[in-house]
Structures are given as C-alpha cells and as structure tokens.
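Annotators were shown the component list below and the corresponding predicted structure, then asked to write short factual statements about the assembly.
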Amino acid sequence: MTVGKRDGKAGQDVLRRIGEASVLILISLADEPRHGYALIQDIKELADVELGPGTLYGALDRLERFGLIESLPAKDRRHPYQITAPGAAALRVHLDSLERVSAAGRLRLQLGGI
Amino acid sequence: MAESRATRLVETVLRCYPARWRRRHGDEAAELAALLIKDGTPAVSIAWSYLAGAAREWLTPRPGQRLSTAACALLVAGCALGVSGGLLASAAPARAATSQARGPAHCQPDSVEPVPTAVRAIGHPQVIIREAGHGRSC
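Structure shown to annotators:
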C-alpha cells in the first residue's frame, strides 16, 4: 500500500525523488566542501558518472533550496559548497533505505537460484 | 582558435539563463566550462548541458514566482498556437472561395463530374469544391 510506504521509513527519505545527480553531489560533499569542477571530477571518480555542468547547477540550486547544502564565500570566482546537518541526515536515511532495498534484492536473487 | 570558438559558444548559451541565475552562477559556470574544455570535454556537449539547464531554469517555478505565472505563460503560448492554427485553417476556404468566384460558369461545383470517393470520405467540403472546380478544364 502506498499509504503504508509513506508512513514508513521510505516516507522520511526526502532524497527519494530528488534525482540521482543530487544524491551523488551530497555523497561527494559528505567528507569536505567542494566547488563545481571538483564535484564533477570527484563524482566521475567515485561513481563513473559524468555530470553535465547544466545538470550540476540545477541540482546544486535544488539542494540549496531544500537546505541540504550551503554555499561558502567565493574563492576567486568559485563557490565551494558544503553539506548541512539536515543534508547529512537526509543522506544517511537515503543510504540506509538503498541498503535495505539492495539486501532484499540480493536475498531474492539467491532464493531464485540464479 | 578552436578554444575561443568553444568559449564563445558556451557564453552564448549561458545568456539563455535567467538574469538572476547569471548573476549567481554566470562567472563560475563560464570558468567551469573553460576547465572542462581544457580537459577535453567537447564544447558542444557542455553547451547542450547548459542549454537543457537553462530550459529547466525557465520552466521550473521558483518559490518567489507563483505557479500561476508559469501556467499563464503556457496558456498564452497555447492560445498563440491555436490562433495561428485557426488562421491557417480559415485561409483554405477563403482561397477556395476566391478561386471559385474568379472561375467561369463551368467551374461551378455542381457542373463538374463527381469527385473520387476517397476524397469525399474525408469530409472536407471546401477541399472537394476546389478540387472539383478545377478538376475539368479550369
């Protein structure tokens, strides 16, 4: 039931519908602040995903609007971004949720005998 | 030379963003594009990504901007399309009437042989009259 899902743990997962790019950005910012170019490079390294600059700025704006990241004072012309406390909490919930789904998937694959 | 052309392309695309966005990210976005181009990313794919981002930026309603504004913009665009479609549609019978009026008496629709069934089945009387009128010796 959809209602049950919304009331359960999935309902607390605010990153569920925010898009993959936003989640990758949050993961990249989880250890230290980064600016746009460093984010693109880091995400390419950690997830083998090449974020387009247009996608990057769209996701950064969205995350900032939700209060999940904040921009730091500009260095040269670059704005570093850092994850906020609500951002870190949301990321933790989302990763837990992914882990549960992943574990269930693996279990079912074993049960299926493939 | 090629690099400056690529930079110009990206700068042109960046102008598609709303002014508010350009004030906030414009300089940084141009610098990021320059770095990516230096890394070997094709300028066209950077420009395409910025273009898609600009479209999203215009279409996504901001907190300060009411949803009704976006809805109104869509409505106006729809009306404009409807009006131009209507004008095009009304131009066809007008043209048909003009050619009918100019033509001689034997061009009257009643005086010509029947039109093919396939044309009649479509059910566009204006088209039928015109085709019928010019089907013989006009």
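Statements collected:
1. Confidence is low (pLDDT under 50) at residues 103-138 of chain B.
2. Helices of chain B lie at 2-14, 19-39, 43-59, 67-102, 117-122, 125-133.
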